[in-house]
Design brief:
heterodimer; A: 192 residues; mainly alpha; Rna Polymerase Sigma Factor, Chain: A; Arc Repressor Mutant, subunit A; 2 domains; 8 helices; elongated; B: 126 residues; 0% strand
């Protein structure tokens, strides 16, 4: 395992294509949690996000023998697959109807005194607000501000221009700020 | 405007909280992904080994390649034929190899053949 620890993504994919099991483990550790994180932010549902992650990783395995090292980043390729699968799933669910079980309940105000509960309340509030954004805005803002990808990377993933990415992210942030404005006190943003 | 900036700053703090809370893979999902990986590897391993064997160059093609491929071998053959031709029918400005061979054979004969050493020495004494 340690033999593959420091290898590049490209090298790991080549090893995987040559039948190296350790490369599969390392690639899974490196990419699957990030894929799962993006899918959860996009879908707001862990079970669906796990299905999407497994599907995206399966596509990565199948694509490995044809991978051209140096032509693209594995992470960019994978995020593109994950977000497209999420969008397809939402379309199949008739225009992205909200999964009411997936959206967290508004935080209980009696728990606000404890930091970790407040953090959870903030994360849940953000996820709830994300789920009300149009799917492309959600995709852009998740990739930019949670996965911290660059605008050119997001442009490649979304197959749009960098300016369009900037516009989508700006609109998404305004939407999120408006959605969260009424919950400032609950989320502990009253001082200052 | 100030209110908007403040709201965006609070939003950035929310993003930071979210970044710190990346989900972990469950054991079940990890196992399922690795099972998929193993099954996919099993499907393309024999194919890739077969194609590797087919793509293995023969010893002659490797020798051919070492000489520089078709161009290199063609040059070698041409140079060899030209050498034989020069040997058989040399141009007029070059010595005839047959004469050279004869000359070299004459060098092998005794240069003092016909001289009697004792006779020469007796002449010196006189």
């Amino acid at each position: 395992m340690s033999d593959v620890e420091g290898l590049s993504d490209d090298a790991l994919l080549v090893l995987f294509g040559n039948g190296d099991r350790a490369a599969a483990v390392r690639l899974t550790q490196r990419f699957a949690p990030r894929a799962l994180g993006v899918a959860m932010r996009m879908l707001g549902n862990r079970a669906e996000a796990e299905d999407i992650t497994q599907d995206a990783m399966m596509r990565l395995w199948r694509m490995a023998p044809d991978w051209q090292p140096g032509q693209a980043q594995v992470s960019t390729w994978l995020f593109r697959v994950v977000t497209n699968l999420c969008i397809d799933l939402k379309r199949r669910q008739r225009g992205g109807t909200l999964d009411l079980d997936a959206i967290p309940e508004p935080a209980d105000k009696t728990c606000g005194a404890m930091d970790h509960l407040q953090d959870k309340a903030r994360r849940d509030a953000l996820q709830e607000a994300l789920m009300h954004l149009p799917v492309r805005q959600r995709q852009a803002v998740v990739l930019r501000h949670i996965e911290e990808l660059s605008n050119p990377e997001i442009a490649e993933i979304m197959d749009i221009g960098v300016e369009a990415v900037e516009s989508l992210t700006a609109r998404a942030k305004r939407g999120l700020a408006n959605a969260l404005a009424s919950r400032k006190e609950e989320l502990g943003y009253t001082d200052g | 405007m100030v209110e908007q900036d403040k709201a965006l700053k609070e939003l950035d703090a929310l993003f930071q909280t979210a970044r710190a809370d990346q989900p972990e893979l469950s054991d079940g999902l990890m196992a399922a992904i690795l099972d998929d990986a193993a099954r996919v590897q099993d499907t393309f391993r024999p194919a890739s080994m077969g194609s590797a064997a087919l793509n293995q160059p023969s010893i002659w093609s490797r020798f051919f390649a070492t000489l520089g491929g078709g161009l290199g071998v063609g040059g070698l053959v041409t140079a060899g034929l030209a050498g034989i031709w020069v040997g058989v029918a040399p141009p007029s400005f070059l010595p005839d190899p047959v004469d050279l061979a004869a000359a070299s054979s004459s060098l092998e004969s005794d240069p003092f053949d016909g001289f009697d050493l004792s006779e020469l020495m007796s002449e010196d004494l006189q």
